[in-house]
Amino acid sequence: MLIRILFISLLTICSYHVNAVTIEDDSGTLTLEKTPKRIVALAFSFVDALAISGVSPVGIADDGNKNRVIQPVRELIGDWKSVGSRYQPSLEAIAALKPDLIIADSGRHQSIYKDLSQIAPTLMLKSRGVSYQENLLAVQKIAKAVNKVDIVNVRLAKHKQLMSAIKKQLNNNETYQFAIISDKGMWAHSPQSYAGSVIKELGLKSPLKNKANGAYLQTSFEQLLNMNPDWLYVGKYTDITVLDKWQKNPLWKLLTIAKPNHLISTSANIWSLSSGVISAEEIAKELLKNNKK
Amino acid sequence: MNVISSKKIKCYGASLLILLALISGFILSLYGQSEFSLHLDDVLGMIIAPDSNNIKQQVIFSLRLPRSLAACLIGFNLGIAGILMQGLTRNPLASPTLFAINSGAACLMVFNSIGFGMFSGLPVEVATFLGALCGGLLVFILGGGLNSHNNPLRLILAGIAVNALLTSLTRAAVIIADDKAYSLINWLSGSLSEIDWQNWTQLWPISVVSIIIAFSTSHGLNLNSLGEQTAQSLGINVTWMRIRVCLAVLLLTSISVTLAGPIVFIGLIVPHIARAFFVNNHFILIPASGFLGATLVCWTDLLSRCITPPAETPVGILTALIGTPFFIYLVLKGKL
Asked: Is the pTM value of this prediction over 0.90?
């Protein structure tokens, strides 16, 4: 009898070790004994990664607004509970969901890492200010954590194929810039930002003359005049923006974007907030729609 | 006799110095630190031979000129607001920053900007005026009302408390707004980068009216410095004077905050510098504080463009960097 119990115990331990995965993350290493089923994602880029892995998170820090998760991602995942804002997610709401994995943003949640780890194993990856290439690495880590490496590899291969197919069709002789605008100003997303790095990945040129100092650059009208992009994609945060004011300035007509359809209003959620594989494809498709060779 | 003439020399010397600093700061800010490599020739060209096809001249005329003019006028407004407050309360610490007028205006401006509650429907100038009024009144009442000069510490504590409250409310609003946060945070640090001719036309009429009101209180403030009762016995309607001073301070501060965000410490520093150089007469102190404020904001705005070009450092951060040591200096010198 004793031998039988010992044997079963040994077998159980072995099976755990077979399933256990170790992932290098921004806080060191994380070992997961079994495949997590109840996952909470504290940034939109992680939701995108889970969506392509075929896993639905039970909780998302969606700032209390489900529409923040972009439509193509929403279509791939089931319903979720909001766990508050990305800056200050509610630890209580996260604990109430009894997660077995939390994916947190090393750019935002370092200060609550210990509290999160007490609730569930926490994978710390970069989301805020992440670039396209950095995000691809993060996606593979998430795939490993949720035990969907094969599915994600197939999906990523498809993604790369799509991106390179679009890259070949794009007009790469001109310069492209994405910016967030509001009534308080304009922030150009440099090639270090997500949208900027997707533009770069697609072989398109940036109008920034000097090497950017940071991902998001506040841009005055004088700087926009100097930058003079051929195409400007803008995500609006307010109905009335500084662009309305700038367009009335006699200098506006000197800009290339003053030509019809060179100033394109787009979704800030897709271009700036989401920072995932699916959003990169959406950005690429939108560029292709407007800027075919 | 010698004392009088040396005082006069100091006064004339300081006036000349301030004017020179203001004019040089203004001209430099028209062409300094630009990606278009602007030069003084372009400024002169704009004046002597305006050419609407010359891009450099156009940049100076339609972007730099309104910004520099606004920097001067906003500095002028804040300087005057500071001297008026110190004159009225007879408290050397009184300033739009300490009285939470800046933070009150900023708080309601943020509520207005993110569409919070009933504030979303208000015109932005009205929202900032209401915020300035609430912040100032609250500090004034908590700080001991009109007897605040008897206990400056109480006023400081009231100022700290109300500023903390309004700053937390603003922060809460910024957290709720989240995605708009970085644009709001930048504005909250005080910035002149978005000012154009349209803003200038908003700024100058209100400023001119408020400055006229401010000048009209000079005599009253002079007598008020001798004490309320003396002022009253000399035929000053103290209540009417207080109303005019408060109205001028609120208008001067709120219009400046609406356009440039809270630029802190100007109202505190400037009157002390003015008093060091000029006689204690509000007929002179009010314009002197105005010109000093204009010079300070003009130069800090220019400096704000030179620290990390092409990015701009918000001008409010620079004024705070200058203002905080000055505040400590005042405390150490036992001026409080």
From this structure: no
